Amino acid sequence: MIRLPHLLIAATLGLAALGVQAQAQPSAAAANANANAEYRLGAGDVVRIVVYQNPDLTLETRVSETGVISYPLLGSVRIGGLAVSAAEKLIADGLKNGSFVKSPQVTLILLQIKGNQASVLGQVNRPGRYPIETTDMRLTDLLANAGGVATSGGDILVLSGTRNGKPYRLEVDLPSVFGPTADAGRANDVIIQNGDVLWVDRAPIVYIYGEVQRPGPMRLERGMTLMQALATGGGLNPRGTERGIRVHRKGADGKVQVMQPGMDDSLKDGDVVYVKESLF
């Protein structure tokens, strides 16, 4: 009778400990994920290395093409391809094992990221080269760094580079990245690697001229019909007639075909819509 409360307390404490352990597991997994996503040093990166209470071991240098730096007391140290924390540990171990510093505390600071970069070209707001700061940087991250797709840009993106030493090319339909399910979007939002080039093509265009309110080129939205294109152009003016609408379309052989489509027929990139003047 006396032991029962103690057994209950012990059981309660045991369950609480299990609960704490279960809560700690996701945190450890998250920490491992963050470690895997840490930036890895590459050729051309500029770094500053500081050893606590050892100012004579402070060094600012550039990682060579072979991934090597020359560090005081240690000579050539290969840090290319290592995460920042791994490079710090490598230098600290070298100083400790060589009996140069008893308990070295090494800090490596990235001053310039040149070793891992990707380019964004085409119809974006800020084309250029951008650093790959984490190993899990994705296509949408790179596109965001470039300011997103410009108003003249289309939905089709082309990512090219190398994977496993072989040429790599992937065509991505941007709306599919934000598809109905997270898994589908994640599959299309691929991870960017060093040297990748992202190309954003221009949006498809149709041209309207003749007896319309606002003739000229316009963006062809996905699935846009002839009626929608005419509406975007302000519709027919008082002299225009629906019976006089013709669409000029270039075929695969390069020859232009003249068609008289229905109002609900879809247009294609490069179509020229001509609205004739009514004779009555």
TrEMBL record:
Q: Where is the Soluble ligand binding domain?
A: 205-259
Q: Residues in domain SLBB? A: 117-198
Instruction: Spell out the molecular function terms from Gene Ontology.
Output: polysaccharide transmembrane transporter activity; porin activity
**What GO terms fall under cellular component here?**
cell outer membrane; pore complex
Chief location category: membrane
Q: Where in the cell is it found?
A: Cell outer membrane
Q: What is this protein called?
A: Polysaccharide export protein EpsE
User: What organism, scientifically named, is this protein from?
Assistant: Roseateles puraquae
